[in-house]
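> forwarded from #structure-qc
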């Protein structure tokens, strides 16, 4: 993992219609997106020089902006081309892309109807989200004290920056106590997701997988991809409300996300899981798909 601070790296970042030097990609301290979280973003993986499911991500970015009450001044096709341009300029073979759109600094108050909408896209070389050695044996999660808000209190189906505040708090608490990540519950106390990834569970016979219904957290693109892969392998997929005490009924658990890919879990609080062959098979199928020419 590159240890250089992100504001000290080199290369180009696409910003408001042009490629600028990495360290010149700046915004004003009174930007609305910084103070009031009026920003939306995406996280995309590059495999062998190609962004996986780029248009799916861009469409979600545009949708997220719409839900936040603003319109990105570029089409989906244009944003796709900008992302590809950055990857090519940065010569990224395997890495990560971060498009982000936000309200600017014309108005500094809760209301910001007339602020300029900005768009930036950065890309960098990036490896595994979790330490590969730890990931091999399954990561360990605590159970967060923070719960996902009810769906009528936030734009829960968007990748908006404000939605991640409690995720960051949860992740920091987990790492402070020696865990790799944190399992978050929803507003009703059901299993929801990890801080940056969706979660799946496997039955003891390894014939079915279960995942929470995405009704208060993001229905991830990788989540949907894994569901499709599982169904193609004749594995039954059940989306249901999962209570914490239900975890004793499952023998396996894994996380999915653009960053996390397919990551086995060995522990959630007091519950333990095995790194099952089925999880490895789903991971192999996913890797074959993302690197398909």
């Amino acid at each position: 993992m590159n240890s250089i601070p992100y504001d000290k790296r080199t290369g180009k970042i696409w910003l408001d219609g042009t490629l600028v030097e990495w360290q010149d990609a700046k915004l004003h301290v009174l930007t609305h997106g910084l103070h009031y979280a009026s920003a939306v973003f995406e996280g995309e993986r590059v495999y062998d020089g190609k962004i996986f499911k780029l248009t799916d991500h861009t469409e979600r970015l545009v949708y997220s902006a719409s839900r936040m009450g603003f319109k990105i001044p570029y089409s989906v096709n244009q944003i796709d081309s900008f992302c590809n341009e950055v990857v090519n300029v940065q010569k990224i073979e395997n890495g990560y892309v971060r498009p982000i759109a936000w309200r600017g600094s014309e108005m500094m108050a809760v209301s910001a109807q007339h602020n300029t909408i900005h768009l930036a896209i950065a890309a960098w070389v990036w490896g595994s989200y979790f330490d590969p050695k730890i990931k091999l044996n399954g990561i360990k999660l605590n159970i967060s004290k923070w719960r996902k808000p009810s769906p009528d209190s936030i734009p829960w189906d968007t990748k908006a920056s404000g939605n991640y505040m409690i995720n960051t708090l949860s992740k920091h608490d987990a790492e402070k106590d020696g865990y790799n990540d944190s399992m978050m519950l929803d507003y009703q106390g059901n299993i929801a997701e990890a801080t940056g990834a969706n979660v799946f569970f496997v039955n003891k016979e390894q014939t079915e997988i279960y995942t929470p219904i995405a009704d208060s957290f993001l229905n991830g693109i990788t989540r949907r991809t894994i569901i499709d892969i599982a169904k193609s392998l004749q594995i039954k997929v059940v989306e249901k409300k999962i209570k914490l005490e239900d975890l004793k009924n499952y023998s396996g658990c894994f996380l999915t996300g653009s960053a996390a890919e397919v990551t086995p879990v060995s522990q959630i609080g007091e519950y333990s899981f095995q790194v099952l062959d089925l999880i490895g098979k789903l991971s192999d199928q996913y890797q074959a798909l993302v690197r398909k020419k």
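QC bot note: Residues 262 and 283 are 5 Å apart (CA to CA). Residues 76-90 form the longest helix (15 residues).
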